[in-house]
Amino acid sequence: MTVLVFVLCLLFLFLFFQYRQNYLEKEKLRIQRENNDRINHIYDSLLKKEHRMLYVLRKLDHVISDEETHLFIEKEIDDLMNKQFVSHTNNPIFDHRLTILMQSLEDYDIKMIVMVPVDSRLDDADIIEQMEIFIREHVTGHTEIRLKVKDNQFIINCNDKTKSIRLKTPH
User: Fold this and answer.
1) Which residues, 6 or more positions from 136, have their beta carbon under 8 angstroms from its beta carbon?
2) Tell me, what's the pLDDT at 128?
3) What distance in Å separates the CA atoms of residue 118 and residue 79, rounded to the nearest whole number?
4) C or N: which end of the chain has fewer Cβ atoms within 10 Å?
5) CA separation for the pair 74, 33 (Å, rounded)
6) Most distant CA pair in the chain: distance in Å?
7) Which SS3 state, helix, strand or coil, does residue 144 take?
8) 51 burial via Cβ count (<10 Å: 0-12, 13-18, 19+)
9) How far apart are CA 45 and CA 161, in angstroms?
């Protein structure tokens, strides 16, 4: 009987520590998610303010006729436009690889337009590799890149050259 009680106590302690460990892991994940949401909100807010600042600078540029001020505003607009790119589509692997790709191409003048939804199929390694190869092959001094998902296709447009990649159906 004593052995049975001892085994039950050990089992209870084991279950208690497992429960506690699971609770702590869930709490850690919840806090990370909240922090990520906060960071995303701040990032979105910064993008909106930056967009507004560009609009105001362009309006000022049209209103002011002073050449020195015009050159200053032009320089500030260029500085804002050539900021470091961070992909923010909530497709974690896709965002990470696209950000690294764009940072490696920072010597080019690239206008990036990303219109993709949250879609786990975009985190597929084969799709990301095809995107990276296509962009590297077609990027030039002045490049406009458009990424979008339409009709189950991931469409990459780079300098008026287009590649469509069929998205795999989720299992």
Assistant:
1) 101, 105
2) 93
3) 30
4) C
5) 39
6) 96
7) strand
8) exposed
9) 33
Residue 162: partners with Cβ closer than 8 Å, 6 or more residues away: 155, 156
3-state helix, strand, coil in the chain (%, to 5): 65, 15, 20
- Interaxial angle between packed helices 125-138 and 92-104, expressed in degrees from 0 to 180 and rounded to the nearest 10: 20
Residue matched to tokens 């699971």: 22
- Rounded percentage of the chain residues whose pLDDT exceeds 90: 30
- 146 bridge partner residues: 113, 157
Radius of gyration, CA atoms only, the chain: 25
Q: Which residues of the chain have pLDDT under 70?
A: 81-84, 170-171
Total residues found in the chain within this entry = 171
Residues 151-166 have pLDDT tens digits of 889 999 998 899 998 8
The two tokens of residue 127 are 């799709």
What's the token pair of residue 91?
């497709």
What amino acid is encoded at 141 in this protein? G
pLDDT of residue 106: 82
